[in-house]
Design brief:
- It is a single chain.
- The chain has 499 residues and is α+β, with helices and mostly antiparallel strands.
- Among the domains are: 117-262, ATPase, nucleotide binding domain (Nucleotidyltransferase, domain 5), CATH 3.30.420.40; 330-400, no CATH class; 401-485, General secretion pathway protein M, EpsM (Gyrase A, domain 2, 2-Layer Sandwich).
- The protein is built from eleven helices and 13 strands.
- The strands form three sheets. Strands 7-6-5-8-9 form a five-stranded mixed beta sheet, with helices on one face.
Length: 499
């Protein structure tokens, strides 16, 4: 019978719930819900959190077999303790005495547990960090492969950005939050708004908070490097503030690191469409739900104590577990042969599909790759490279003038014959003082004349001329075409630093 598992992420800004469904053979991420917490003077903080969670459960008629939540970072302190041995039994016997040296409270008044972050054997994967930037805090978790290696909670988040905006512009926090959502972006140089505008002051306020966050992130990475003699080689972003425009590029430039979003909607078991929700917001809730369906190998830390501690009847459970083990063994024996047969069959099909995908992508792009593409992964890399090249061309086009160069390109495209009748690859587009210069390549000299004649028939272009027509190294025909745009007035350059 299918089981429903909920992962509940109770933040300071909103409550997120990830819904997993587990069957005997598989599990799936099927739904994600989020609700902003409405604080008021009538309800306490805990009552406001409970009201938001209750609203999600009731509005979506959620029922579940198990639910997983996490302790807030501000309520937990993490300490790293070195032992000259790695046996769990010895750690259990000596941990109580070691903890007394690290906390200012009697051990009988606190709830604590431990997780071995590193033993004698080091996994081969490179260390990476998961940065969960929330509303009131930022949680940094450093892992090595599947092993937890380091963690730290920073008291910097979205609320501090809102306060910085409100202080700089002398406006209420509610107005500052609205401006953050509408005009907020990371302070990346090529995206900065004009200096005399409100968005510019919003970005400068964001810059102050992000610089402080960067200082603590660098200190955290340095502390990890001093402890382990290893460097963090990549960063995954998640949390509400991961939605800030340009933050991925900003952190990558500042930290000199590979930075990307942690997107649980791309996991193979996800059946949730992206919709209007930024995928990074769902990461923590999905991670909590996964503990109910795939907890093997995950860090096991138990903070339950006293009347909340789990006390299982080992003898009573033993007989049931043995019977269940025998049943599972029989089922696995029957299914194992079938699984192996399916595995080899699907492996051959996957290899064939990879080759077909690579061939289709190569044909669709219309150009031969530098290195042969043999599978879907290589095809995706080629598509992404083409997309980045297109984005870079668009960026250069839009940076030439402040008028819409894309509208002129649209007019040019409308004048030219269809692509199945005429092939044109534009290598350079320049718009300056009402004059357009295009450098490109096509398949024949006749095609060059067709391009010139088609542009000459437009009522928006004038004085269409071609030049530098000749063959390239691959027998393609290279050429330049120049013409004026009627009624186009040059826009004065904006003041400030040029690029």
């Amino acid at each position: 019978m299918p089981q429903t598992i909920l992962g509940i992420d109770i933040g300071s800004y909103s409550v997120k719930v990830a819904e997993m469904v587990r069957t005997f053979k598989r599990f799936s991420f099927v739904h994600f819900y989020e609700r902003k917490i409405q604080y008021s003077e009538v309800l306490t903080r805990e009552e406001s959190l409970a009201a938001a969670l209750q609203g999600i459960l009731e509005d979506n008629a959620l029922t579940w077999d198990a639910a997983f939540v996490a302790l807030p970072g501000r309520a937990v302190a993490a300490r790293f303790i070195d032992f000259p041995f790695g046996q769990a039994k010895k750690i259990d016997q000596t941990l109580d005495f070691e903890v007394e040296n690290h906390v200012p409270f009697p051990t009988e008044e606190i709830v604590y547990d431990y997780y071995i972050v590193k033993a004698a054997k080091v996994p081969p994967e490179a260390p990476y960090a998961i940065c969960d930037i929330g509303h009131e805090k930022t949680l940094i978790t450093i892992c090595h492969g599947k092993a937890l290696r380091f963690t730290r909670t920073l008291t910097i988040g979205g609320r501090h950005i809102i306060e910085a905006i409100a202080d700089r512009l002398k406006i209420p926090p509610e107005e500052a939050e609205r401006l953050l959502h509408e005009a907020g972006q990371a302070p990346v140089d090529d995206r900065m708004p004009p200096e005399d505008s409100t968005p510019f002051h919003v970005v400068k306020a964001i810059d102050v908070v992000l610089e402080e966050l960067l200082l603590h992130v660098r200190q955290t990475f340095l502390a990890f490097r001093e402890r382990s003699n290893e460097a963090v080689e990549g960063i995954y972003l998640c949390g509400g503030m991961a939605r800030l425009a340009g933050i991925e590029q900003y952190l990558s430039l500042k930290l000199k690191q590979n930075v990307t979003f942690l997107n649980p909607l791309e996991f193979h078991f996800s059946q949730v469409e992206r919709g209007e929700i930024h995928p990074a917001v769902a990461a923590t809730a999905v991670a909590l739900a996964l503990r109910g369906v795939a907890a093997a190998g995950m860090a096991d830390v138990n903070f339950r104590k006293g009347e909340f501690a789990y006390r299982g009847d080992v003898q009573q459970l033993g007989g049931g577990l043995r019977r269940a083990g025998i049943a599972v063994g029989l089922l696995m024996g029957i299914a194992l042969g079938y699984f192996f047969l399916q595995y080899f069959t699907l492996t051959r099909k996957a290899a064939q599909l990879n080759r077909e995908v690579a061939q289709l992508v190569t044909q669709a792009l219309g150009k031969k790759p530098a290195k042969p593409i043999n599978d879907a992964t290589g095809a995706v890399r080629m598509l992404r490279a083409g997309l980045e090249e297109t984005k870079e061309r668009t960026r250069r086009l839009e940076s030439v003038v402040e008028v819409s160069a894309l509208e002129i390109l649209k007019d040019i495209s409308a004048q030219l014959p269809p692509r199945d009748q005429l092939s044109l690859d534009v290598e350079r587009f320049e718009l300056k003082e009402g004059q357009v210069q295009i450098r490109g390549k096509t398949t024949s000299f006749e095609a060059v004349d067709k391009i010139r004649d088609a542009l000459g028939k437009s009522d928006k272009f004038e004085n269409v001329q071609t030049s530098n027509v000749g063959k390239g190294v691959k027998d393609e025909i290279k050429f330049e075409v120049r013409f004026g745009v009627k009624g186009l007035t040059p826009v004065p350059k904006a003041k400030g630093k040029g690029t």
